[in-house]
Amino acid sequence: MPNTHPCKLVVIIAEEALEGPLAKDVMALGAHGYTVSDVRGCGSHGMRSGVWDADSSIRMEILCDADTSLAITRHVEDAYFRNYAMVTYVADVGVLRPEKFVR
C-alpha cells in the first residue's frame, strides 16, 4: 500500500505471569506502547489451555522502529528465554500514522 510506512511488529507469546515485567521492559526499551491479549495453544511445552492462572499465556504485540525491535528481542532473549516458556518473533509491516509507533 502506498500510504503505509515501514515498521517492525514484535510479538511475544509468554506465560501470563510475565505481563507486568515485560510491559515495563518494552516501555523502558523505547516502545511507545503495546497490546496484550490472552491466548492458548499447544507447542513443545505441551497444551496451554488457560483454564487456570499458571497455565495462561499472553500475546504482546509491539509496533516500533528497527532499533527498538532489536533492543526488545535481545533483552527478552537474555532475560527470559532460559527460565520461561515463550516465543518471540519480528515481522516487517506497514503502518498508517507512523508517528504513533516510531521515534
From TrEMBL:
Q: Which GO terms describe its molecular function?
A: enzyme regulator activity
Which BP terms does GO give this entry? Answer: regulation of nitrogen utilization
> What single Pfam family name could you report for this chain, choosing any that match?
P-II
Name of protein: Probable nitrogen regulatory protein P-II
Q: Which organism is it from?
A: Azoarcus sp. (strain BH72)
